[in-house]
Each structure stands twice: as structure tokens, then as C-alpha cells.
Specification:
Layout lengths: L2 E4 L6 E4 L5 H5 L25 H6 L2
Antiparallel strand pairs: 1-2
């Protein structure tokens, strides 16, 4: 289950948890007033870490 939190970066309402209950915990917050830090593209040059399975099987 998700819960409402305030983003540490922008201080806007966000959520913590699985992500399947976002509308239940943020339903009363207009979308333009919600945190979008999770949606920002990753910094350039930051290599994506391979998944555990890829590392385990060497893929």
C-alpha cells in the first residue's frame, strides 16, 4: 500500500510505496501541484545499472 509523503527535493506531495495506489493517496491533490521529481530524466552520463538477473547471468 502506498502512503502520502512530501518530496525531500521539491517539498510537494508525493507517495512512497508500490505505486499502485497513487490516486488513492494523492487523489485530492491536483496533478500540477504534485511532485514530478520521479519523472525527471536521469542525469546524462549516468550509466543505468543492470538488473540483478542480468548481473547474475552475465547478460
Amino acid at each position: 500500500m502506498c502512503r502520502r509523503i512530501d518530496c525531500a527535493e521539491c517539498k510537494k506531495p508525493s507517495y512512497a510505496g508500490c505505486g499502485m495506489h497513487v490516486e488513492q493517496v494523492l487523489g485530492d491533490v491536483p496533478r500540477d501541484e504534485r511532485c514530478v521529481c520521479r519523472e525527471k530524466p536521469k542525469k546524462e552520463g549516468a550509466a543505468e545499472q543492470p538488473s540483478v538477473l542480468r548481473r547474475f547471468f552475465g547478460l
